[in-house]
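Please fill in the sequence for the structure shown.

STRUCTURE ENCODING:
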């Protein structure tokens, strides 16, 4: 039973696919005035119960034993820096909900100087085991959190002006679980990307958006 729950939570948190928001008519309609939308964020905003990252920790393939401190600016460079993000899900709030892991990526106009982006925008999302996450000052490239399933169908490309659902599935967290950490890393072979996880004009970065599960 326990492993079943764990498996479904992992699936919920980091693994299922959806169509990127680019194709959404909502996005096309009012792209100029609004924040980029997706199925879980029809107005492109963060709902009040959106779950923010708790910790961002860079790792570097070229400094594989260096443990970086926590940062508020994620850094990804081609085949070197990745950033691990932790999200702490409060079990009670997730009951009967779909956990949508999103990456909100507004245009420069809607995010001021909060990100830099150079390259074709191919990224890899690696999921870690449930209940583990990056530990600032401890986690390194050679000492990453224990492995877990990765999203099977992440967006093939991410570019400014879009809001992506990386994964959407029933949260599947038992009500008595307290707070459950899920984590993953963002890397790229071809793109340099820095962003400040923030919500200034539009949200920018990783969030979990809870939506009602019609089958719950
Ligand atoms: C979210 O968390 C990050 C650190 O992980 C912090 O810098 C940021 O201000 C928080 N708030 C929002 C809305 O992103």
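FILLED IN BY: designer on duty
SEQUENCE:
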């Amino acid at each position: 039973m326990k492993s079943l729950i764990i498996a479904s939570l992992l699936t919920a948190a980091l693994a299922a696919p959806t169509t990127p928001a680019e194709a959404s008519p909502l996005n096309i309609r009012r792209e100029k005035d609004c924040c980029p939308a997706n199925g879980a964020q029809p107005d492109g905003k963060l709902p009040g119960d959106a779950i923010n990252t708790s910790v961002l920790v860079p790792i570097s393939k070229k400094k594989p034993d260096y443990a970086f401190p926590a940062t508020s600016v994620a850094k990804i460079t081609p085949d070197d820096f990745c950033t691990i993000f932790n999200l702490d899900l409060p079990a009670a709030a997730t009951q009967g909900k779909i956990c949508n892991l999103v990456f909100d990526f507004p245009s420069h106009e809607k995010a001021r100087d909060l990100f830099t982006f150079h390259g074709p925008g191919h990224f890899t999302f690696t999921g870690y085991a449930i209940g583990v996450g990056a530990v600032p000052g401890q986690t390194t490239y050679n000492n990453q959190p224990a492995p877990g399933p990765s999203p099977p169908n992440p967006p093939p490309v991410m570019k400014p002006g879009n809001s992506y659902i990386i994964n959407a599935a029933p949260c599947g967290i038992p009500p008595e679980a307290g707070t459950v950490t899920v984590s993953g890393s963002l890397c790229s072979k071809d793109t340099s990307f820095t962003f400040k996880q923030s919500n200034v004009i539009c949200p920018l970065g990783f969030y979990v958006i809870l939506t009602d599960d019609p089958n719950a």
